[in-house]
Amino acid sequence: MTLMTKVEAQGEVPFRITDPERIPAQRYYDESFYKAEVEKLWPHVWQMACRLEQIPNVGDWIEYKILGKSVIVMHAAEGIKAYHNACRHRGVPITEGRAHGSCEHEGFTCPFHGWRWNIEGENTFVYGKQKFSEKQLDKADLALKPCRVELWGGCAFINFDDNAPALRASFGPVAERLEAHGLGNLRAEWWFATELPANWKIAMEAFMEGYHVMKTHPQLQRVVPGLYNSMYAYNMSETGGVGLPTNPYMSGRENIKAQFRHLELLSEGMAGMVHPKEIEIARGLLDVDLPEDPQLAVQTWFGILQDQISKQLQAKGEKVPDLNAVCVSDPVNAVEFMFPHYFLLPMFTAMSAYRIRPTGPETCIFELWSLAPFAPGEEPPVPMEPTWLPYDSPEFPPIPRQDYSNIPIQQVGVHAEGFEFMRLAQDVEGLVSNYQRLIDGYLGGVAPEKLAQANNLLGGNFDGKIFDLGF
């Protein structure tokens, strides 16, 4: 079946993708396309709502907001629940303008007329109930409306669609691979947020390939040009005068020093990518005995490093996996994408996390977390709200600051006269095409089971190829 036959079988979609290597520019700013996403995509997908360490005790709750909707994620007596944040009387949000809190005993009180609900969502008080007809006071009808919630990776995910496939059925095998790397044991060290003057998909796509590193993050390419040139350049010397060509004469020891500096830059650039405590372990291994062959020396050194990170952190009581074992049994990419809006960036035992939410056709909220393992009793204070910064703030770590320098001007560029489409490399920007065509599947009314199967293909697709999604 040809791509054209498949897309014709779907419902009407504005600016539909007909060539998987070309993404129509209007999808990044057109009001009709944005409206279609609001109505047909976001109500049916799994969304990361909060981190579980934010609601550790019975009665703890936090609010998640998306496109005018508000959900309370609650640690109830029987586990994590979620409720739509609206009084069953006149619709006023019952969180009274707060973003989080704890209410094990008092529950929620509507600020308008004083109606109350407990943490299980049951109505416990109606002021002047004698004024209402009996049918308006049915117990089940007065209960807070539940929102679907599932737990994974140390987070609560919500879905407004009660009939959507389960979270694991949607994310696919990558969910188990990330869990094997200890994702569920990580804790947030810090949480930043900003509003970007860009469509949410432009913000997403900046992290779907490493092809941009040479120009956007030159400090990384220049310290280990062989790594990036081997993945993206036509040959090991092709950099267009922007990056450095590969030096074929570096010794094994020189290579190790360059690799260590690369890890330092990743740690300085984002923290969660490589944690400072992992850097200190690596620093102590710079003089270990290694093979003379440069390539074999690098492979051997990373094997020793991963072994020592696992053993030294485990000795401190941190719950981390055997890195050498899970890299074989459950390999993950440098960036993993959980459709539609969540990224995880695993390296050793720590990770970075990104969440993007649209606020309009050409604006979005971008959040960043630094996640790391800690021994019991040594966990950092839980960040309950993000530190909000202007997108061009020098307080952002260097790597996202470099990305944020591109995203807003790219939004301007998609409006340029004669710019009709994003032109994708089929062998390295496939994730951009695959997730965009998955969006078309939602907008076109493809069966949920087929959408979940296509979603599975996005795990491990960073720097990947364009796939046939099956519709």
Give the termini distance in whole angstroms.
9 Å
Shape: globular
Number of helices: 16
Oligomer: single chain
Strand order of the largest sheet: 13-14-15-16-12-17
Low-confidence stretches: none
CATH 4th-level superfamily of the largest domain: Naphthalene 1,2-dioxygenase Alpha Subunit, Chain A, domain 1
CATH fold naming of the largest domain: Naphthalene 1,2-dioxygenase Alpha Subunit, Chain A, domain 1
What is the beta-strand fraction? 15-25%
**What can be said about the biggest beta sheet?**
6 strands, mixed
User: Mind telling me which CATH architecture of the largest domain this is?
Assistant: Alpha-Beta Complex
Helical/strand content category: alpha+beta
CATH class of the largest domain, please?
Answer: Alpha Beta
What would you note in describing this structure?
The chain is α+β, with helices and mostly antiparallel strands. The protein has 3 domains: 3-45 and 171-205 and 337-456, Naphthalene 1,2-dioxygenase Alpha Subunit, Chain A, domain 1, CATH 3.90.380; 48-152, Rieske [2Fe-2S] iron-sulphur domain (Rieske Iron-sulfur Protein, 3-layer Sandwich); 213-329, no CATH class. Helix content is 32%, strand content 20%. The chain contains 16 helices and 18 strands. A 6-stranded mixed β-sheet has the order 13-14-15-16-12-17. It has a 4-stranded antiparallel β-sheet with strand order 5-4-3-6, with no helix packed on it. A hairpin with a 2-residue loop joins strand 3 and strand 4. It is globular, with a radius of gyration of 24 Å. The termini are close together.
